[in-house]
Amino acid sequence: MDFNVFAKKSSRVLRVLLANSGKDWKERQLAEEAKTSSCTVHYVFKKLIEMKLAARNKQNRFILTDPSKLLRIWASHHHYDLANEFLGYFALEREIDMFIGKLADIELEYSLSGLVAAWLVAPSVQTNDFHLYVPSEDIATKIAERIELNPRPRGGNVRFVLPYDEGVFYGTRIVRGVRVVSNIQLFLDLYNVLPRGRKAASQILDLVLKEWHEEREK
Questions:
Q1: Number of structural domains the chain divides into
Q2: Is 217 among the domain residues?
Q3: 102 and 164 co-located in one domain
Q4: How far apart are CA 133 and CA 52, in angstroms?
């Protein structure tokens, strides 16, 4: 059976590798960082080497050789709308700043993604559709109550996203007072959301490439 390097647990390894593209790794070290097994890491290593996207260096440690190609291939396999479950709500606030202001006071676990997250990171495509990863439906309900959202199975402007794997939270950072997914995750989520998502994804990719360049220059 062909090993799927983009499967749930495997994708945790990819996120760590791409977030630290210039770093070399031992299997156990990477397994701890990715919160997965050494066995999974071993097979990810093996597959990426077969794909000519990685190699072992002179110290016999694992390193990516073409992170940009890996990210693009992964994005082509990642379908945000199909991979996750969604809970629909409606917010009266139509302005991004008003919604973000309310969200900034929330201490529960969440991570903003989608076009609004892209707008916060690299302002361009503007929208009032808010997508928030949450670890459980219970957390979604608590956030909805605190910022006064109304359930709306269809046509809502707020979607709580129950992720296919907890790895989506890796690299979450604070942007303008709210939690936003990493640029790696944001690029993946936007890439196959056409047409506006692809445009926003292109801008996020520019940020990722810039981060990698700066990392190599250190």
A1: 2
A2: no
A3: yes
A4: 32
Q: Evaluate whether residue 92 is within a structural domain.
A: yes
In the predicted model, is pLDDT for residue 202 greater than 70?
yes
Q: Are residues 102 and 185 in the same domain?
A: yes
Question: Which of 67, 109, 83 minimizes the C-alpha distance to 193?
Answer: 83
For residue 144, what are its two tokens? 């909805």
Which of 77, 104, 131 delimits the end of a domain? 77
Shared-domain flag, residues 73 and 84: no
Cis peptide before 123 (omega within 30 of 0): no
Q: Where are the alpha helices (DSSP H) in 20-86?
A: 27-34, 38-50, 67-77, 80-83
Over residues 30-75, the pLDDT tens digits come to: 999 999 999 999 999 999 999 999 999 999 999 999 999 999 999 9
- Per the rule left: phi > 0, alpha: psi between -120 and 50, beta: everything else, 148 is left
- 216: tokens are 């190599």
